[in-house]
## 1
Amino acid sequence: MAARLAYAQVARHATTELTQRAAWVSTARLLQSALAVPEAAGWTVMLEYDLLRLEKRADCVILTDRAVLVLEMKDGATAHSPADLRQAEDYALDLRDFHAGCRALPVVPVLVATHAHAGPFDPPLFWGGVPPPVRANGRGLGETLLAIHAAIGAPEAPLDHAAWLAAPYRPVPNVLEAAAMLFDRHRSAEMVSARADAANLTRTTEAVRRAIAAAREGGRHLAVFVTGIPGAGKTLCGLNIVFGALREDGAAFLTGNAPLVEVLRESLVRQATSDGRRRNAARGQAVTALQNVHRFLEHHVERPEERPAERVIVFDEAQRAWDRAQATKPSQRRGASKLTDSEPAHALQIMGRHAGWSVIVALIGNGQEINTGEAGLAEWGRVIAAAEGWRAVAPTRALSAPLVAQRLTDGPQPWLTLDDDLDLTVPMRSVRDPQGAPWVDAVLSDEPEAAARIAREAGGVPYFVTRDLGAMRAALRHLARGLRRAGLVASSGARRLRAEGLGVQAADIPHWFLDRWPDIRASDALETYATEYDCQGLELDQVGLAWGGDMLRGPEGWRMRNLSGPRWNSVRNPTERAFILNTYRVLLTRARYETVIWVPPGSPASDGPWHDPTRDAAELDAVANHLIACGARPLEVDAVIAEPPDRLALL
């Protein structure tokens, strides 16, 4: 058995040490003893079960007639450490969420610290989903497994092991996990294979590859536009292009989102060095593949005779590329601008320096415009029509946005080919609740009846509302099980949150996204918050959204405001209003699982002379009431602590 496991380990391009072989032998002997009972005669035992999303393997997965048991073995351990308990729980959560055979079964994590004191077995009241980890030791493992088996009770129909083994395991990695897997050549194929169920993403990626192949074969310059709803996998699609088949041709992922670049680069460096590769080499590769679009353009504008090293660039959030006024504006940091035209115009001119062919893949985030000076899709259409030798391919969605600035063009054009395979319409960020994105769209579109209907027909959406900051933190810590990551987010315009007890923006975003508690800089310390600029393009498992005074409710619908000195001023400019609305769209779609919305209690009129009109309680009450009317669930403090997390998510 140990030899077979070692062979499988080498096939994964991983090293095998003598200590690992000894651990396998110890595990096999322990299981032989623990399962030498009649009740276990029909059980299926799987060792080193691969969990692709985690880039790890569960020590042992056991199928009984009524449950899936996930065992994490700690040979020689004398205690059940919190870190080991979280690891065992995370393995079980991964199977529950991504293995089709686990959907209707208890998936029970068991931490086996072989030399620890196990303590009494205390079965949970609710066995559905993933219960809290069970503590076991080597001596009493058999008794513990039988106790779990008996406590769950016999099902109406026993688990079909052959069907479970044939059921697909299809993980949904987050952006950082996906980037790390794609960055590692040995894991890239597994990554693509694992996401074969994501038909929309696969179809779009293939459409981009077809377009690139046609440009190469025809010797043409081509702009490929990929559209998609928030959380549909645009960034993953772009990374797949850069780190996938085009890696040898020279491809780069360009974005004006500086936090996204910093976090992705640092994540890749940490992953590479943890696997034994040299840190400097890994950082060099990450810097080449992931670049700041403003610096890329400035570099090549200053060197007009230099062709880019890349034949293909992926332009992230291309609708946010700077228009001419913003691109040529001097800044305090850079001084006089080196650009003389809009960023889309410079991108075409620079990539057009290649003899033969070149491709710009423009990723378009619908409803993601959050800043002034963003040119929109119309600028891309204008410069492509004016540029000699350039053509474009885009989905129909790129021509149908309600705002003129976000339409590539009006009607058919000789330089444009339509391909609806380039439109990502299936939400992937939300692991369990695909109705989250449509619900957010209805809420922000001021359609409460439609939002309530979506929530009702979906059996609830993963959005909770509380007026208590402490309750939000307690809920996030309760829901963020295993190695799941929680964090707080808030609008950059929510400038009166400090009066409610939350006023510190995250200072170091790579630490915020990559480190873990007890590092106080980490997101799950729940001390600091990220703004829309910090977290766009990234994601968390659980999100605590602090609602600010920059977007409130009124008789006419949403009211947008900005704080000037001691008072709020109404925002009437349609473009500025859209920026604020899109800010909340970004913040409401950052979670892979639950979002807990904290609407501060504000200052009531009864405060008398100390009433603070910049955070009026009645105005904030209207926001909370509206969200609940739309189908968000009130969060009760006692229920958060009392309910098992899996049950809480379903209430």
## 2
Amino acid sequence: MTGFAAALYENLPFPVLVVDVEARVVSHNEAAARTFGWNRDGRLPAAAAVIDGANLARHASQGRENTHALSFRHENGSSFEASAHVIALPDEGTGVHYALLLRSLLSGGSHGEQILLGQRIAAALDTMTEGFAIFDPEERLVLFNRSYKERCGEAGAHVRVGATLESIVRGNIRSGMFPGIREGTAEAEALVRERLRDHRSPDSDGSVFPFGEDLWIRAESHIAETGDVVALRVDVSDLKRTEAALEEKRRDYLSLLQILPDMILRFDRGLTIRFANDKYAAHVGSTTDELIGRSLPDVACAPEQAAALIDIGGYTRDEPVRTMEICIDGKDGREMWMLWTAVAIFDDDGVSEVVSVGRDITETKRQQRQVEAQTSELRRKNEALDQFTATVSHDLKAPLRHLSMFAEMISEDLHRGEFDELPHYADHVRKSAARMRRIIDSLLEFSQIAYRIAVPKPVALSGVVRDALALLESHVEESGGTIDVQPMPEIMGDPELLKRLAQNLIGNALKYRRPGKAPVVRVYCRQRPAGIDFVVEDDGIGIDPQHVGRIFEVFQRLHRDETVYQGTGVGLALARRIVESHNGSIALDTSYGPGARFVVTFPQSIRSRGNERGRFG
């Protein structure tokens, strides 16, 4: 009996008495001592019966499930009524004994009020949808509501007063209440330790875990002044499903941002990066995780190019959007054009964030330049056609008039039988025909010059000049001239056209020399920020600056006497067409003297140095 009484003393929160057949107390638990007043001053139960006129044998025979209204005697001499279970105990040689389990007091002072209040609290707790339980400092279950037990499903049998938290957790694992966790595995032991650790860390934010079929539970622990631990089990399944739906939408949103061909970046008012998609991360040679939290000026190369876009103070509610085209150097060294659009988001303090989208418009720019080049080419061809029409209507008419005039004179002399002037007239006809042939050949050559180079490639100007001098070898020997050629760099272009350019310029320098003096021609290059100057200068007769405006037009000759300086006036016009086909320019240096100096400027793509070009964030 002593062992049984000790078990009751340790585990049951309600009053329990063990009495003999005369209702005298043999043993009791602490709850009973508080109810009957035996816990003051070390008092023990009186030897008298604690129950007035009770037939314990008859009550016990009716079954332990039933309760009976009994009149009990308090230590202070007063009486009170309480409902109790009456359970007959085995006879262990000391006589018949009965266990009395008091469930509720029906009358009698403050102790009865406390027990009735406990019953009312328990009934109220059963109405809660949240699981509620109280564990003593030894982690034994003292009190629980219906929801706490029902949540355990098949493991509900393990939820009983006096059960330890560990036994309840292991019972839930055995019943499969923790999805994917099997009893006896390392995962199961880890789960037990985790649940006990959370229970022993009261007043925390709790923990959320899957439980049962499609349920999520948030477990919270709070310590009471008595040292007991109040455990709450809140069903957060709806919240988790909402979070899962939001997470799915977030993943869909991120997936959409990742598959877009554009670069996307979001930064706050302090220029701290809050989001970057993979396209932008790859563009700056980083990863999205590494970029989050970094300062935008530290990531972007040459942010001064995008200063207007990252200037937080420049955005207003009336004009929250800005757009800018930025040129950068791509990974292959070629220029890359980006179109950035930035939209500011405002809060009460002004701009809170800026969302920017960058699109690669390199191909669009290339096509735009191609259209511009084709437009320019069409314009040049139209100009050439106009010049060709003017030439045909003017320059070709002159030799035709001579041919017609001398043909008529020959016809008239033949008709009159006069033959003395016929050789003279025939010589004029021959010369006019020869001039017409030269004009036609020059026009054909002029019309065949390309206005657009199909496949430009690196061309060494030194080699171009060397090939041109090989074609001019007879002219150099005839004039006795000297050609001084300095080392020259490479440019992008067409070698045949450039050779013809050098041939025309050097040939002109040899042709228009001073009478009786061997010409000296110098060919060299100069590097300038705008590009490379290809220079051909001589010490010849020079060109009057007043003619600068027309020397590059077709058939514009400053020297009409072909017996001294032969030509058709196409050479410099042809040179200009070749230079323009290389996107360059040609000019006469009017400050140079004596002689003439022609300067051809070839634009070169100047690579960025330092932070001249950068990546916008």
## 3
Amino acid sequence: MNNEGTMKSFMKGAVLLTIAGFIVKLLSAVYRVPFQNLVGDQGFYIYQQVYPFVAIFGIWTSYGFAVAISKLLADTGKQSHGAILRIAVTYVAVISIIVFVLLFFGAELLAGWMGDLQLSQLLKVGAFSVLLMAPLAVLKGYFQSRNDMAPVAYAQVVEQGLRVAVILIGAWIVVSSGFSLYAAGQMAMLGAVAGGLGAAILLLLYFRNHSASLKQPTTTVGAWSIVKEMTAISISVSMSSLILVLFQLVDSFTVFRLLEESGMGRLVAMEQKGIYDRGQPLVQFGILIATSLTLAIVPLVARTSKKNSGRPAEMYARLAFRVSFLFAFAAAVGLTFVMPYVNETLFQTREQSFALIIFSWQIVWMSLLLIMTAMLHGLGKVRVPALLLVSGLVVKIIGNWLLLPIWGVSGAAIAGNIGLMIVVIGLLFYFKKVWPLTFAPLSYYGWLFGAAMAMSAVVLGWSILADNYLFNNLSSRFGALLTTATTIPLGALVFMALIGKSRIITEKEWYIIPFGRKLAGLQLAINSKKKGEMR
């Protein structure tokens, strides 16, 4: 009975974190669109150049360290919790201060390496957000160790909500008041500070009721061993979440500089980098399904792999892979044919749509990468995935230097795909070695590619008809909006109808995944209609 209660509590917490994670990722993808519309491609370039510096440390601490602290607390007796938390606070605080000093006092040096000294002020503002990471990481880890996910989930939503609000409202005020685009970028960096502060205050309010239990006498623990384990766990679990941001950091140091060195004018190079960065929200939106599955299903893999009863871990692993690949592949194929219209609808022009098509295929690699690294981590395998991710980063760096001078931003997009593809291939081979599991039968891939081909034909035909004949008398952007708004649902309907008929994912499996009930209902309706027609 106790085990059943624990599982119910775990599932409730997992669902809450899944919903919060989905909201956070959705906001992260969506806010960039109105921000780019407010500040233009040059303003978007300014923000995207500096964003990775703050994001990398934020992901490592508030996610990686939180998981590490949670694991350490869960694996030790309550008598040691006070000592572990004190060590964790001190350690993360020291790292935060070091990173703050490097970002704030090294801002001019880093901006010089990026080729734009005016970015230094943005780095200085963003540096203050890292000072909030110690309370965020430790408090999140504490609540997660107690399986009390509500404070963590609420803090994530509050943090992202405040951040987005400050970014958009601040950018609007700055631009409408006639200040420079760099001032708008500083306001955007201030959003990270506001979000972190709001989340820290909320977690501290929740923590007040728990602080008394930590004042009891505690046993001593080895500080050095705690620090070593915390570092190893935090880096390994956050690497898969960091990889896309690390790729952005590589782009921050290489794309603008290499474009300018290849003979492109300074302002044009800034705008090209800003246009290239339009791909980031598209990829983030495309991997929402994989992120949700990682949060919801992968913990079940970790738990069920240690049990002999109940649903087998293999079922969850196969389901996570198949659903993630299905939606990621559909998104990438669909964007290939509607990108010019999506590009203009969201970002005002159709410029560099081909480069963005290439960029959008990172959705497939990132989705598979997130699922496999998370499952391997659940099995306790972290070192090899981390090394593979580092190798992908090296390939991205080399690819940018070789391909950017030849193909411009398309070269950078190709380099990103190659880097992620190498990581995914390596993970597949390693997964087969660790856990010889067949993710899906050949019929799954056959139906998937067949559904994608049918969707492509319908999407291409309708988009050409809509763009050239139905909406060609309207303003260009409004016409693109209507083309996008009609083409995407039509393509999705065709794709899901064929997937539903194939039943390559059963109704019972749809029920397991987040928000899968409606898809299960749709699939039942499709197949019941088919049976009725046969009669």
## 4
Amino acid sequence: MVKGIRRQGIRRGAQAAAVFCGAALVLTGCVSAGSDGGATAATASDGEVTVGIIGDQPDGGDPVDGGVLRFASYAPVRSLDPVKTQASGTTGGTELAAVYDVLVRYDAVKDEYEPRLAESLEESDDGLTWTLKLRDGITFSDGTPLDAAAVVASTERYNRLNGPDAQVFTDSVASVEAKDPSTVVYTLNQPWHQFPAMLSLGHGMIVAPSAGEGADFTPIGAGPFTVESLGQNELKLVAREDYWDGAPHLDGLSFVTIAGEKPKIDSLANGDIEMAYLRDPTYVAQAKQKFPGYLHRYSLTDQIQLNSRPGRPGADERIRQAVQYALDPEAVNQRVDGGIGDPGTEIFPEWSKWHDDAQAAPTFDPDKARALVEEAKADGAATRLTYVSVQDDRSQKYALTTEAMLENVGLTVDIDFVPTVTDMVRRLYVDHDYDIGYTALSLPDAAPYIRLYSALSSTSTNNSSGYHSEQMDALLAKIQQAPDEDAKRAAFAELQQQFTEHAPMVPMASGSNFVAWSPNVYGVTPTMDSVMLFDEAWVKK
């Protein structure tokens, strides 16, 4: 059950007094304190912060109104239609949430879902029904009501247009019905205790009935901001005076494009921006020493994606296995990240609650890789691979290191650099025009199933590798329906075994995303997958 906590009680924790600590303690969990005195970060058994607000930031005092907060996103957003933009921190989820808000918010430190546009969300005893109650009086920015009919219509639109993770939803949910103007009932095909995660992502970003589709689409939502302009390198949003929970403190938001993570940190230090989204381990480590912000640790932040579609070299399982055995995550970590990363071939590393010591992860074995390449080549398999990569410094190092390791075992690699993450996503996930590439599933411990399903299910249109396996599909179903954490952890161990045997992709490392902000920024509220909410954010003058 997701408790219907009063909205005011969960809004202002990020504005409370912070504990003071030296920079040396930032890396081990010195965090801001919530309004209830509780820490706003969580640590793993290794003592490192896994998720939460960290950093040395003084009490901001009372919120002040005015100003535009400038945020350097990870990648530029090309569309504000939730069916076209993945609702994650790296791919436009923060921008979408500013326009649409979300039905429920995930609190990663408490590990629970809290109502937002919803007033409450309750699970039935048999786990097959979820009942959502909407708050009274919420309107879209065009003045029309956000009621149960609008939620159903938005959900149907999202699924019909095959938005991100739509197939996870349609394969799991039998029906979505408006029982009355304020009540939506979701009836599931099978129990799924983590179903609220769907309502904190794209399905929870409700599009107004008047928004339209295709070329006629207009981003109309119930969020705290509306769109002023969307250009090639900047998205400008302005505050809504009639936002359901009160006008935002900020006058607006500006999401800007800055190529490279060092320039982002420099811009943050110079006051040219107030926030920046960082993923590169080197710059995450630097930024944590300089700025407060939100840290989120993920599994599978580095992986080598393999295209196993017919006609591609990876269609031969021996080629995929050879790639798996040829790559040494620790050596990549040393050459690319100077040894500061968290390398490993386990899907869930030791710090994850889903880690199981019984999981059989692959090991570096170049001799075995050479034998597989020779065997496949003798049978006529193609051994020349096109590696698609973004053209930033770290991705170039990663590509060149991978190329050297693969060519060491008899494979030939042609690197094809593309300008932006958006271009790479198109090559891998839309056109499927690649053989291998560096990607990240970035599995949050809260809801890893959703992304694993999208990447691995035989029926998922987001399965860029083309990997099809009835055994994998059965394992995914087992994970989804697991009655408790022990059963889910055991199912994940079976999934690791499947990875090792069939190499649908190659895990290389876990890592952290860090949303850094200037010390004068307050009131930013994180939700699922490092998406940031700005309705209570403010900048101290």
